[in-house]
Design brief:
By secondary structure, the protein is of the alpha/beta class. It has 15 helices and 17 strands.
């Protein structure tokens, strides 16, 4: 058998897993056909520059997954029936030599914080943080507002319009933010989710090498948007009350910090609310060093125990806060309706940038949303969802309390709001997530949220997307799967 063309991804997973992925890809691309023997472990080890045991670990992984078969004393072979139902092997391999490079012309490598998006496989129980339960979205009601938009005046509604947003929506949103979040006369720019907002901020404020302070446990998509502009991300400590102001002050005294990214209402991923004294301290430090703050307030509406604290942006005498928020959690993520409220001086340059990038958002969805908000349906939906999610949080806490009472070493702080709970477990989080996954439960482990990934003992349990019965069944499976794991020593 000739050599396989292996493209081993450069990320922080163990080498054998990356090698397994490379072999899997080679099979997918048809470099090794079903039934065929693959090269010997010795030659693969030589080609990949790794130990033979590493190759064997990688191939055994693929045997377990059903891609390869192994018989004592024989070469590993590609399984005749491959496990991936969507897989159709290329009948003719594209090339047996190295593939032609794609895009053989100069282009810029887009930098990222090298945190890949977590996988979201369709497992029966998905404790996926931050996803609303779309089964409860009142689609019929919303459809009538979309239909209205298409029925009346659509010639003017659906053409090129204001870059900042669809005018009736901007008006309604302005009123909503004034009444419910204390933002007065904000300079609003509608964006394709928070993600576009973070990207625009990066492009406007960041030059390659600029220091951007982020929560060391945080939200990788924002990191990626800023890293794409060349930001040098520096992680600040997060403890059980959120970002530690002293760490921010220390960094500012040593380096010129160009931006601070903060999730004050429900710290991502831990969901703790930053206490008022810390907010004020962080603002004071930012003011002293002239550091703008990107405030990500991504699920403001979901606060259960009391009224949510108003955003930092609602009291921003120095005009430091670039406030970013989204309708992904209260409408649906694919609507891609986010927005920013920015200091006056930044409004025009950000609008110009937005014009270059995406020209404007969809006025159909903005218009329908404005009508839904005006008519009261939106608040009704929110009230219903708030009640539902609060019940789900209670259900999750009840399961955890029961497990703790039976001797499992679990600890957590029940959050005042948000859509996820940060749980400390007695096992290594990645091993726990892998065991859960093998039992049909999706849960994301702490290292996914670490700027510098290491080990961790926390899981982020999204509860909004599961009914109480699903939460109970899913947690039962998760805890049963983890019970077989060794206790973590760290
Ligand atoms: C911290 C954080 N910011 C922002 C968002 C929303 O992103 P978008 O508006 O791009 O859908 C999420 C959603 O998961 C989030 O968790």
């Amino acid at each position: 058998m000739r050599d396989l063309v292996l493209e081993i991804p450069a990320d922080d997973r163990p080498v054998y897993l990356r090698l397994a992925q490379a072999v899997r890809e080679a099979i997918r691309k048809g470099f090794a056909q079903p039934g065929e023997a693959i090269p010997s472990t010795r030659s693969l080890a030589r080609a990949a520059g790794v130990h033979r045991h590493t190759v064997m670990a990688a191939l055994d992984e693929l045997v377990a997954e059903g891609w390869l078969s192994a018989r004592p004393g024989q070469a590993y072979r590609v399984e005749p029936d491959l496990p991936d139902p969507y897989f159709r092997p290329a009948t003719k391999p594209a090339a047996r030599s190295a593939p032609k490079p794609q895009g053989a012309f100069p282009f810029r490598i887009v930098r990222s914080s090298s945190r890949p998006a977590p996988e979201q496989p369709l497992l029966p129980y998905r404790f996926q943080g931050g996803l609303p339960d779309l089964r409860l979205f009142p689609a019929d009601e919303f459809r009538s507002h979309v239909a209205d938009m298409l029925r009346t005046g659509f010639e003017s509604h659906l053409t090129y319009g204001d870059v900042a947003g669809f005018t009736p929506f901007l008006r309604t949103l302005g009123t909503y933010l004034r009444r419910l979040r204390g933002l007065h006369a904000p300079h609003l720019l509608v964006t394709h989710g928070s993600q576009e907002a973070a990207f625009l901020v990066g492009q406007l404020l960041i030059s390659p090498g600029d220091v951007v302070a982020v929560e060391a446990l945080g939200y990788p998509p924002t990191w990626n948007a800023l890293a794409a502009a060349g930001a040098h991300l520096v992680g600040l400590a997060v403890d059980e009350a959120g970002l530690v102001p002293e760490d921010f002050a220390r960094l500012c005294s040593r380096r010129r910090v160009r931006l601070l990214c903060l999730t004050p209402l429900h710290q991502y991923p831990t969901t703790v609310t930053l206490p008022v004294a810390r907010r004020m301290e962080i603002y004071r430090i930012a003011q002293k060093h002239g550091v703008p703050i990107l405030e990500d307030d991504y699920d403001h509406e979901y606060h259960y125990r009391c009224q949510p604290l108003p955003p930092l942006a609602s009291e921003d005498p120095q005009g430091l806060v670039l406030y970013v928020s989204t309708f992904s959690k209260v409408l649906y993520p694919a609507a891609r309706v986010g927005f920013m409220a920015v200091p006056q001086g930044l409004f025009k340059p950000l609008s110009e940038l937005k014009r270059f990038v995406s020209r404007q958002n969809d006025s159909l969805i903005q218009g329908a949303l404005a009508r839904w908000m005006e008519e009261g349906g939106f608040s009704r939906h929110l009230r219903r969802m708030r009640r539902t999610y609060a019940e789900r949080l209670d259900a999750l806490v009840a399961v955890l309390e029961e497990a703790r009472a039976s001797g499992v070493d679990l600890s957590w702080r029940t959050p005042d709001g948000g859509m996820a709970l940060w749980l400390k477990i007695p096992w290594d989080a990645e091993r726990a997530a892998a065991a859960a996954r093998a039992s049909g439960v999706l849960v994301h482990p702490e290292p996914l949220y670490q700027l510098r990934p290491g080990a961790g003992r926390h899981l982020r349990l999204g509860f909004a997307n599961l009914t109480p019965a699903e939460i109970r069944a899913g947690m039962k499976r998760l805890l049963a799967a983890c019970a077989r794991l060794p206790a973590s020593r760290q």
